[in-house]
Amino acid sequence: MKRLTPLGDDPAYVDRYVAIRNRKHLAVRNQLIAAHTFVEERYDELNEAIADDTLRLMAVDGRATPIKVALRACYEGATQPLRDLKKAIIAAQPKRLLKYCPMCGTTIHSTFDHYLPAVRFPEFAVHPLNLVPCCSKCNSTKDDDWLTPAGRRQYLHAFSDEIPDETFVRVTLHEEDAMLGVGARFSLVRPNGIEASTWALINSHFDRLHLLERYAELSNDEIAEVLSDCRIFIDAGGLDVRQFLGHRAKERFGIHGRNHWRAVLMQALAAHENLDSWLEGT
Ligand SMILES: [Zn+2]
Predict the structure, then answer these.
(1) 111 and 61 fall within a common domain
(2) How far is the CA of 133 from the centre of ligand 1 (A)?
(3) Ligand 1 centroid to 102 CA: how many Å?
(4) Who surrounds ion ligand 1 at CB < 5 A?
(5) Is 5 inside a domain boundary?
(6) Based on the domain organization, do 23 and 132 belong to the same domain?
(7) Do both 17 and 132 map to the same domain?
(8) Are residues 135 and 24 part of one domain?
(9) Average pLDDT over residues 159-163
(10) Is 156 within the bounds of a domain?
(11) Which of 66, 95, 114, 197 is the most buried if burial means most Cβ atoms within 10 Å?
(12) 111 CA distance to ligand 1 centroid (A)?
């Protein structure tokens, strides 16, 4: 996982909202036009909270309540400006980064998560920093409890949380009985350089989205695929399979960050003493 690039502010975020709003039915549009100052204020507040790293202090604003249906309607229906906004958010990302969901790293993004839940913060239904491209599993697993009872954030915010450039996703490989398979167990290990608050946030993100369990479930297939690629490499005359795997892992670390589970897995395979015997298996 790597931080996503926030959408540029030309056109301004609030102008994108206005373009979407203006495509809605008259009744919705008029309600939102009457409340425009409120929405503008809230956009400023959110932009500042993200810039100052005080996102956790964003409070629900009662002024949204009477117009919540109209505000949320902005994210419903495929208006052209909404389609353009979604496309622009995706286009702002470096190539290949979104091959994997930025929240879990397991599969391609297919939807958008409202980081600040739309039920509580309907005014941010189409705010570009509140629309995180992600997979449907993450979107449905992440609940509206974005804060702990003590007011700490529970999930990493893909546009603003810088993931420390240190390895904390670890894997142990083990041979599984009877089926010549290789299994993997993932864990989080705190590196010395990570602050307690950052570490708590990373832990909570992994825990709430069940990431270690999801990686373990996927790893059998992933290992089989990697070993198959290695055999193809060897059959084609490749000599140093460990180096081949190591290079592939490194390339993925470069794109998806040091804690991308697939790359962690490849690196562990490359270094494992049993690799040669696993490659001889069928
Ligand atoms: Zn995901």
Answers:
(1) yes
(2) 9
(3) 6
(4) 101, 103-104, 135, 138
(5) no
(6) yes
(7) yes
(8) yes
(9) 94
(10) no
(11) 114
(12) 10
Q: How far is the CA of 260 from the centre of ligand 1 (A)?
A: 12
Q: What residue numbers bound the domain in which 227 lies?
A: 169-280
Task: Output b/e per residue, 138-148; b: 16+ Cβ within 10 A.
Answer: bbebbeeebee
Domain tally for the chain?
2
Q: Rounded CA gap, 219 and 215, in Å?
A: 6
User: What is the identity of the amino acid at 26?
Assistant: L
Strand 131-134 and strand 182-188: the pairing is unpaired
- Compute, in angstroms, the gap from residue 41 CA to the centroid of ligand 1: 31
User: Distance from the CA of 211 to the center of ligand 1, in angstroms?
Assistant: 9
Tell me, yes or no, whether 149 lies in a domain: no
Q: Apex CA 216: angle with CA 212 and CA 221, to 5°?
A: 145
Do 174 and 132 have their domain in common? no
Based on the fold, state whether residues 176 and 131 are members of the same structural domain. Answer: no
- For 68, the token pair is 């919540």
Q: Could you report the per-residue pLDDT of 32-68, keeping only the tens digit for each?
A: 999 999 999 999 999 999 999 999 999 999 999 999 9
Q: How confident is the model at residue 179 (pLDDT cuts 50, 70, 90)?
A: low
Centre of ligand 1 from the C-alpha of residue 99, in Å: 11
What is the model's pTM? Answer: 0.94
- Assess contact for 159 and 103: CB atoms under 8 A: no
Name residue 266's amino acid.
Answer: M
4 belongs to a structural domain:
no
